[in-house]
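Sequence in, structure out. First:
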Amino acid sequence: MDIEAASGGRFDSAPERIFDRWAEFAAWAGGAELPAGAPLADPRILGAPSPSPRQVFAVGLNYSEHAAESGFARPAEHPPVFTKFSRVDHRPGVGGSVAARRTH
């Protein structure tokens, strides 16, 4: 949903600008009559959830397929948490496998 369009221009569509006015945004969103969502055919068109993140924290080996893809054993208790550079492309469906990225 385009928040800028849904709010009639009251709020910017850039998530980082909404966070600065969170209390006002939450009050508006709590009473807004918003259209029903629709299925998304291709999640790659979404873009990054926050286009200009200040910090990015990632969770690794958090499901069996991810651990198998990376060649590491799945942790018994807690998955590793680590930071990523903000210049990395974080969009859904972008990138390829961990093993493939290691070769570049």
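Second:
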Amino acid sequence: MCVGFPLLTNCRLQSNCGGRIVITSSCAGQIGLFGYTAYSSSKFALRGFAESLVMEAAPSNIFVTLAYPPNTQTPGFDKENEAKPALTRQMEDEAGLYVRERGELRLASEHQT
């Protein structure tokens, strides 16, 4: 199943076709963080987007999920750490780092058959 705007658009042509849209934000989207002005604000904007989308998608029986994953050990996270301010790194060290096991944290679309 295709998720996202094509699903919402197609469902408006049909009645109650149902589905789920999953939007991935970040824990940094829940609060502002030093050194993450642009990142935190863009991730926080996803909350407003998701809340509005919930109301638009409800008549078509489409559910919206907004995920706030923690800092997760990835190649992108390692690259980000190269330029991260020391204060930000110190705050993140307090929170810890999630190291995923192989096969974990798959997106919802990977579970579809």
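Remark: Confidence is low (pLDDT under 50) at residues 108-113.
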